[in-house]
Design a protein that fits this description.
Layout (H helix, E strand, L loop, with lengths): L8 E9 L6 H14 L4 E7 L6 H8 L4 E4 L5 H11 L2 E6 L11 H9 L4 E11 L6 H19 L11 E4 H7 L8 H11 L4 E8 L10 H14 L2 H25 L2 E3 L2 E3 L1 H31 L5 H9 L2 H28 L8 H27 L5
Parallel strand pairs: 1-2, 1-4, 2-3, 5-7
Antiparallel strand pairs: 4-6, 5-6, 8-9
């Protein structure tokens, strides 16, 4: 059995670096000053992610006490994951190397980490944003919207989910189980911490104008954050819209089968029924996909959704198959009824098109249910 590596330092500060020759030295000197003033036994780790300027040379020649690593895989998350992996501290503080974050504020983070908080996140919005530090679109549109979506989807009260300076314990980081390599790493850290009920707190900070050229690609990076949150939220992507579409469409279908609906000064019948039936099937398919996706997310990321777990235990493969077969049988009964009506009319003219659409809808729903039950069961397979 592999022995667990003991912490060598109390704190490791990890700085991802990409062409930061104007600011990397300033950040290192501030961190070193905090170590000396606060008597912190710590280390500084710089992870270069493909710099083409003098950043690496500056670190090598002026700051020999800094641990320098080169991460060939591109991406903000890749650089941070490498640095955190190499860190030997009990606690880790990560932040950008462009001097936008004041590392003299490290004691604020250490205070809460020593109290037992798992994740301490800086918040620029509850602190101070200096002129020129953040564009209008990021300050009033991008960051608030993305942080709001994260709160809506995953709960919590994080006001600045994309703040780059944050501290956490090595133990908490291992519980998070992070995988992403790009800018969405910041969102993933918050989401996993919330889902695994880690102890989180925000710390107001001051945000400064960066030195050098920004590496942010506003729309691309925003989409990566949003994309990750959506992929991780089957309830909002599949189950919620699926439920709304299915309920509305199914009720409309049933009413139209019984007879035309008078609305807006005219009768609505066959054409609307065709569309309502299609949307009923769409809604049912989204619900089925949501069940499979939710099952996958919970099994892979080891989430503990009590309500969903109870549903899954009750709606197992066998019960779902029985329900699907019942829907198919219901559709077949309706088809037999149509055949009976036709027989009663001596196989003459047949006007049961609406009833036939309803029968087809039930049969397809039944087939969707059965196949989804098998898919969900496959996604729940666990191997040691």
């Amino acid at each position: 059995m592999k022995e667990k590596k003991l912490d060598v330092y109390e704190l490791s500060v990890v700085l991802p670096c990409l062409n930061e020759e104007l600011s990397i030295g300033i950040c290192i000197e501030k961190i070193k000053k905090v170590f000396e003033d606060e008597k912190i036994l710590g280390e500084i780790i710089v992870v270069d992610n493909g710099s083409t300027d003098k950043s690496v040379d500056i670190v090598k020649t002026k700051y020999s006490y800094v641990r320098l690593f080169v991460e060939p895989e591109k991406g903000y998350g890749s650089a941070l994951r490498r640095g955190i992996k190499e860190a030997q501290g009990k606690y880790i503080i990560m932040g950008d190397a462009d001097d936008t974050y004041d590392y003299l504020e490290i004691p604020k983070f250490m205070n809460y980490l020593r109290q037992g908080y798992d994740l301490v996140i800086g918040t620029r919005f509850k602190g101070k944003i200096l002129p020129g530090a953040m564009s209008w679109s990021h300050r009033y549109v991008g960051n608030p919207i993305l942080s709001g979506i994260l709160r809506l989807f995953f709960g919590g009260k994080i006001s600045d989910s994309h703040c780059g300076i944050r501290g956490f314990s090595k133990v908490a980081y291992e519980k998070m189980g992070l995988h992403t390599t790009g800018m969405e790493f910041a969102s993933e850290m918050v989401i996993h911490s919330l889902k695994k009920n880690l102890k989180i707190i925000e710390v107001p900070i001051t945000y400064y104008p960066r030195k050098g050229v920004s590496k942010l690609e506003s729309f691309k990076d925003a989409w990566r954050h949003l994309r990750f949150m959506l992929i991780y939220s089957p309830g909002y992507v599949f189950i919620l819209p699926g439920s709304i579409i299915f309920i509305v469409s199914f009720l409309l279908t049933i009413n139209l089968v019984r007879g035309d609906i008078y609305f807006g000064g005219r009768n609505w019948g066959m054409h609307v029924l065709v569309f309502s039936s299609m949307f009923t099937l769409l809604g049912w398919q989204l619900l089925n996909l949501g069940l499979s996706a939710k099952s996958f997310v919970q099994s892979i990321f080891l989430e503990q959704g009590k309500i969903f777990n109870k549903i899954v235990k009750f709606v197992n493969l066998e019960r779902a198959m029985i329900f699907g077969l019942t829907l198919i049988l219901l559709g077949l009964v309706i088809i037999f009824y149509i055949f009976y009506v036709w027989w009663k009319n001596n196989f003459g003219p047949l006007t049961e098109v609406k009833t036939a659409i309803l029968a087809l809808t039930f049969i397809i729903m039944g087939l969707q249910t059965i196949f989804t039950a098998f898919l969900t069961s496959m996604l729940q397979i666990k191997y040691r």
